[in-house]
């Protein structure tokens, strides 16, 4: 029997289903990196729903069904996912990824996304970046930047732009999906106490060879000053 599929939550439905106690994805044994990534990817957007349904060439159907039926469907249906469901996924990732620490240790979200998207589901990379004339493919972008005193409570737009600038990066093409990991922090140090979500992201200045307006004369720009 085909499982029920539920669309991502939007507007009033998202507030009604996701707000309150015992909502979201239950944490257990350092699962926060995976819980946050799964919630961001699936609760309120369908942009990566192909991960749930599409039979990719290398796709592991068992992992795909766990992800779809035990995590995403209950999250969208009731707003709550039991820690046991995430542990079931972590056990499968441990088996497929040949890494025993997926069930008990905190990992980098990028490591989790690369494992599940590339090795288990066989999805093509979502991003093409260029730096110093060299291109690289990846599944998400992690913001790296030095502490900047003028940024007290930044928004995502500011962080992405400054991170690209400091790393001399450009997007080779408009990405089908732009997964961004905020600056890392631990118990002892936090770079920013808060980050304001940008509900829209303007990537015009981040695109390689994208025609843009000159800020002086208004014509098509021929030079770019960092």
N-to-C SSE series?
HEHHHEHHEEEHEE
Q: Would you state the CATH class of the largest domain?
A: Alpha Beta
CATH architecture of the largest domain: Alpha-Beta Complex
Biggest sheet, spatial arrangement of strands: 4-3-6
Number of beta strands: 7
Beta content: 5-15%
| Topology-level CATH name of the largest domain | Cathepsin B, Chain A
Count of DSSP helices? 7
Q: What is the approximate shape?
A: globular
> What is the helix fraction of residues, given as a range?
25-40%
Given helix and strand content, the structural type is alpha/beta
Uncertain parts: none
- Taking all residues together, what is the mean pLDDT? 90
Domain Peptidase C19 ubiquitin carboxyl-terminal hydrolase: 24-203
Subcellular location: Cytoplasm, Cytoskeleton, Spindle
InterPro entries: Papain-like_cys_pep_sf, Peptidase_C19_UCH, USP_CS
Main location: cytoplasm
Summarize the structure.
This protein has two domains: 11-120, Cathepsin B, Chain A (Alpha-Beta Complex); 127-221, no CATH class. The chain is built from seven helices and seven strands.
């Amino acid at each position: 029997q085909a499982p029920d599929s539920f669309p991502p939550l939007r507007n009033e439905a998202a507030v009604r289903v996701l707000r309150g106690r015992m909502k979201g994805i239950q944490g257990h044994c350092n699962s926060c990196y995976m819980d946050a990534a799964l919630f961001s990817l699936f609760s309120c957007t369908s942009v990566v729903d192909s991960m749930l349904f599409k039979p990719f060439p290398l796709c592991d159907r068992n992992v795909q069904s766990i992800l779809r039926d035990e995590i995403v469907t209950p999250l969208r249906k009731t707003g709550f996912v039991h820690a046991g469901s995430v542990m079931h996924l972590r056990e499968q990732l441990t088996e497929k990824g040949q890494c025993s620490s997926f069930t008990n240790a905190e990992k980098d979200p990028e490591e989790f996304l690369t494992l599940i998207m590339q090795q288990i589901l066989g999805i093509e990379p979502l991003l093409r970046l260029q730096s110093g004339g060299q291109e690289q493919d990846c599944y998400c972008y992690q913001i790296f930047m030095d502490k900047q005193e003028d940024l007290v409570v930044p928004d995502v737009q500011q962080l992405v732009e400054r991170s690209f600038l400091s790393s001399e990066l450009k997007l080779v093409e408009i990405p089908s999906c732009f997964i961004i990991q905020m600056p890392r922090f631990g118990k002892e140090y936090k770079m920013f106490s808060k980050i304001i979500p940008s509900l829209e992201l303007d990537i015009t200045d981040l695109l390689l060879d994208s025609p843009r307006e000159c800020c002086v004369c208004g014509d098509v720009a021929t030079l770019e000053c960092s």
